[in-house]
Amino acid sequence: MSDATNGAESGAGGAGPLLEVRDLVKHFPIRKGVFHRTVGQVQAVDGVSFTLNRKETLGLVGESGCGKTTVGRTLLRLIEPTSGQVTFDGHDLVGMSRAELRPLRRRMQIIFQDPYGSLNPRMTVGAIVGEGPLIHEMGSREERRERVEYLLERVGLDPVHQINRYPHEFSGGQRQRIGIARALSVNPDFIVCDEAVSALDVSIQAQIINLLIELQDEFDLSYLFIAHDLAVVEHISDRVAVMYLGKIVEEAPARELYHNPRHPYTRALLSAVPEPDPTRKKERILLTGDVPTPINPPSGCRFHTRCPQRMPVCSGEFPGRYDIGPGHHSHCYLEDPAHAAEEPAAS
Amino acid sequence: MAEVEPRKFAGRSPTQLAIRRVKKNRLAVAGFGVVCVLVLLGLFPGLFAPHDPIEQFRDADSYQVAPFVNPEHPLGTDEIGRDVLSRLIYGAGISLRVGVFGTAVAVFIGVLLGALAGYFSGVTDWVISRITDTFFAIPSLLLAIGILAISEKPKEWIIFSALGLVGWPGVARIVRGQVISLRGSEYVLAAQALGQSSSQVLLRHILPNCMGPIVVLATLMIAGNILGEAGLSFLGIGLPPPAPSWGRMLVDSKELWTIMPWMGILPGLTISITVLGFNLFGDGLRDAFDPKMRA
Fold first, then answer.
1. B127 interaction partners in chain A (CB closer than 8 Å)
2. CA angle, B287 as apex, B35 and B107 as ends, to 5°?
3. A121·B294 Cβ contact <8 A
4. What is the pLDDT of residues A172-223, one digit of tens each?
5. How far off is chain A from B144, nearest CA to CA, in Å?
6. Total domains, chain A
7. Are the Cβ atoms of A118 and B187 closer than 8 angstroms?
């Protein structure tokens, strides 16, 4: 019952990163009036670049509304990107027609946040998990059924008693397991976990995360793990990218990011993580003001309106990439020796 | 793994749950009872009607006799001696067919256009929505009269087609709204991520989840169409005589109201009870489908 179908398709690139994203942009037009004139753009994702290696997990963190979910969905072309380049195992996803994309769909999957909204209430668990193999005609009817049963068992459900049940008969954690089985059903190489555990109780979260880690080893998966909970992300990720208002502001190996955060926004986020040890004092950075609207984001560094260390230069151009260490870079003028000496602007 | 009959562990689908909720609603069950009686009468009028609906009884005991006088004619006869009960029973068939097929036409057009508009937003949506608006802007009775004016002696199929052409915009709007709200749902995205084609996403994921509101609307619409048919007949543009349409029977009673009141009261009551039955049943369906369906 192992994956006879897997080897055939994952040979294309071999070496090099599995996924490469360059300057991904998604602007949602705001239309008004009878003639649907475009009166503005929501700049949900505005020039995001990163790479994801095979069997690696990249955490993507940021506040609500920063564009994390849009990044995940544009990668899979569930939302059409405005511009940018997405290369998956040597295939340019953005330039592809829908028909060309279809066979590649098998190799990229997504797990959603809402365990209630992500399963069709009128389909049985067996039909939900079996849909992908059916679409891609993976094996005979009998083989597909066996695969569904195997996957249900693998994610911790009982195939005999539960395969003919409906989503409303399951708990949130169980539903999330069904969603995971559905994503695995087509034998993907890459899974976008879009806040996959955010809606669950903490105890269930741990179970699901451990399941995801086990499955990663067993099925050789790469994850883009989107979340707003930094503690969760640290546990599962190899590298972490921090997003603010449609742009990645800092990226580093997980451990490095938590021990040596450089961007003021990353520091503020980390200072908000609850500390389990009550005797330990830690510096709490309180941000003032609200997240600006992505319809008309601030010029220059988008964080400059709330940054405790802002300098005059920050409102000019968006800061370029400054390498800090191996795999660690930040978009912040504080890293630039030419500006680091400047006085913080009066607040 | 032991061989177990998996059917044993089949869960309850949302539809099964809704049916259970309807069964607990007494008014809805009563409404359903009325609907069942109408269906039985409409399908097999010959089994229930004591006489032919257009046969004229001229003997003294039967001619223009009031209800409950002559057991041969339990609900009396009309001004030319036709048995009222038999006419009502045969009329049930007309009302049922016009109501159901008229609704079927409206649902077919409405679901098709509404689903297309909702799923493929943009220009498709704009064009279909404007057509829908246009149909809405025309008073429905006037539109039906206009369509019926084409034929001098309308047949049943022309009448229900006319009612269907009048009724579809309401269905289209509801379906469009439902499709738009479901189009962005995560299970639809999941199906798209799996590589499911647009038509299959619509047929397997979106439309089945619109069925609740459509079924409710259709049930209520049947009642509306039965009223509509009666109304058209009353205006003299329904089925030509001697067809035993309920609306026609009302018209015929108009002049004789003071002499033979049963000729108007009986078809009036029948229409009311029928429409009430469908409406109670429809309301019950709505209550069963609506409340936190997914919980």
1. none
2. 60
3. yes
4. 999 999 999 999 999 999 999 999 888 888 889 999 999 999 999 999 999 9
5. 30
6. 1
7. yes
Range list of β-strands (E), chain A: 19-32, 37-52, 57-61, 83-88, 91-92, 108-111, 190-194, 222-227, 239-244, 247-253, 322-325, 328-330
Determine, yes or no, domain membership for A160: no
List CB contacts (< 8 A) between B294 and chain A: 116, 121, 167-168
Cα–chain center distance at B219: 6
Chains A, B: CB contacts within 8 A come to: 98
Q: What is the pTM of this model?
A: 0.83
Gyration radius (Cα) of chain B, Å = 23
Task: Report pLDDT digits (tens) over B5-62.
Answer: 555 677 888 888 888 888 888 999 999 999 999 999 999 988 888 888 888 888 877 7
Residue B49 corresponds to which tokens in the numbers above?
A: 């009607």
Domain CATH code at residue A261? 3.40.50.300
Q: For residue B241, what are the contacts with CB-CB under 8 A and spacing of at least 6?
A: B248
Q: Across the interface, which of A73, A149, A168 has its CB nearest the CB of B294? A: A168
A114 located within any domain: no
Give the residue from B20, B30, B12 showing the smallest Cα distance to B279: B30
Rounded to whole angstroms, the Cα distance separating A220 from A217 reads: 5
Residue B237 has which token pair?
């543009």
* Residue A214 maps to a domain: yes
- What domain range is A239 assigned to? 3-8+17-107+187-340
- Identify whether the C-beta of residue A194 lies closer than 8 Å to the C-beta of residue A112: yes
Q: Does the model's ipTM exceed the 0.90 cut?
A: no
Is B195 in contact with A117 (Cβ distance < 8 A)?
no
